[in-house]
Amino acid sequence: MGGTSECEYREKSTKMSGKLSKREKDVREAFAKIEKMKVEASKKSEEMRRSVEHDLDKTERDITKSKDLAPESKKRLRSEIVVLKRAIKQECTELKTHISKTLIPA
Length: 106
Description:
Order of helices and strands: HH
Radius of gyration: 29 Å
Low-confidence stretches: none
Mean pLDDT: 89
């Protein structure tokens, strides 16, 4: 009769199982790459925040030491720096939130 034997069905089943395992491995590797990219993005975001805050702190110290600036000017500049620091903190928080929400595997 020439029908398909049990052995042939097992071979097909084994091949399908192997393909499924390979695809699952590929997907897991893709998620690992995504997680690595998320960690790198978080690090860059934190480095950026630290760098900018360091620069602002240095500027604030320079303003305080400056003998050429009037007290009112110093006060205004310090207020602007405080506003910038808050904006930086908010922006970094938003970046971290965005990064953490990006492709969360189930």
